[in-house]
What we know:
It is built from four helices and three strands, in the order αααβββα. The chain is of the alpha+beta class. It has a three-stranded antiparallel β-sheet with strand order 1-2-3. α2 packs antiparallel against α4 (84-104). The radius of gyration is 13 Å and the shape is globular.
Amino acid sequence: MLAPAIARTISSGEEGRGMGNSGKIREDIRELQAGGVRFSRLVTVCTKWFGQPRITGSHHVFKMPWKGRPTINLQKAPGGKAKSYQVGQVVTALEKLAKLRDDDE
């Protein structure tokens, strides 16, 4: 279940922090699953769906919009690429967000 503020914004049709439809989320998932993701692109996708990160040193920490407020911690790999396990964490979070959107519609 989405946090009440997020659910209200979704129902109002706004886009931004986690807003939009599940089809757009799935487009981003497919892009990330293609591999070779640059760190900057992963941060852009996370910011689009989860809001601005808390940045501490080289760590970009995103809060998830569901109960328990879990986080995803991103850190750049050598060569400007995203770490593959972190891409997997983002894909898993986006899949959960898409499912929650489908359930709320």
